[in-house]
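Collaboration report, partner site 2.

Our partner group contributed sequences for two proteins of shared interest, and the home lab folded both. The records are reproduced in the order in which they were received, starting with the first partner submission.
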Amino acid sequence: MGEADNVMRDATGRPRPEVDELLVCPTIAGNQLYNVVGDMKACQEARLALQRALDKGRIGIDGFVKANRGIAREEFLKKCLIKKISTGMGLEDKTS
């Protein structure tokens, strides 16, 4: 318990690390996979934001379709890259 108290006292005196410093993959491929998954999630969020804008009448149907098609294309390419990186790392899904 004394050792745990010492560690806690030591930790309170240090500055908090940035999140980006903590979330670092040990391999280049792992870091690339992490970034590509983040990009894919951003595409999904962008498509949801477009849907909300269409529902509120802030964007027309033509603009919605054009923007949504471009984002969906980018998301598809990200998914393909994720699959390629995952397979190269030995993380492929054996069930499919």
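Second partner submission, folded after the first:
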Amino acid sequence: MPGWQILVAAAASQCGYTPQDEQLEKVYEDYKDKLVIAGFPANNFGGQEPGADSEIQEFCKARFGVKFPLASKVSVKGDDTAPIYKWLTSKSENGVLDAQIGWNFGKFLLDENGKMIAYFPSKVKPDSEEILKYLK
């Protein structure tokens, strides 16, 4: 049985993938004994996360029942990329893989020691077997 896992997801409130917030919450509830989910709102793609942190928190809670932690809004690409995303997307930093975040809801899975396990692009749903196989 694996130890704790951490799933890091870039999020946005006005994206076609926004319903993944509900799926993330369900996975968070179903696997809370071995999984932490951390959402990082980002406004890098099409201006789909224009709100302030408090507005984002309220929207996610009211619309999708989100209880998993949401960080303050960050940049996930470009010159102002947040340090965590520099680490997540660069093999020279994380030692495992390079990842190009193409849109909101790209997801990274880490083990309990912070070692990179995998990257999943936006189209991979949080409740897909592609992700859940790591949690079983």
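Feedback sent to the partner group on the second submission included the following. The chain has five helices and four strands. Helices lie at 20-30, 53-64, 83-89, 91-94, 129-132.
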